[in-house]
Amino acid sequence: MTWLQGILQAHPEIAFFLVLGLGYLFGKITLGSFKLGAVTGTLLAGVLVGQLGVTLPNESSSASSSCFLFAIGFRTGPQFFRGLKSDGLQHAALAASSPRRGSCRVAGGRTVWL
Predict the structure, then answer these.
(1) Which of 43, 46, 64, 66 has the smallest number of CB atoms closer than 10 Å to its CB?
(2) Is the pTM value of this prediction over 0.70?
């Protein structure tokens, strides 16, 4: 096991792709009616490989974060814009007014709006 740990620490890019592959395989596991899924499987694989003391360079960490954000945006983007068309103006007004309403203070028994 130490040889695997040594290889993964020396070449973190191998660890990165190993986590992706293991995560995909873990995602296929079904226990009764429960299925992990690719995202949960990848997170679990990342935790397991991380226990070996493997760290990724900052460049690959930021690239991984960017890919994750792209995937989330790609998946939820159409739903977000559909929501803006239907009742987005109401939600935007609520979001704009919330800080103003939250800044209400009670000073000397009087309500003071900031």
Answers:
(1) 66
(2) no
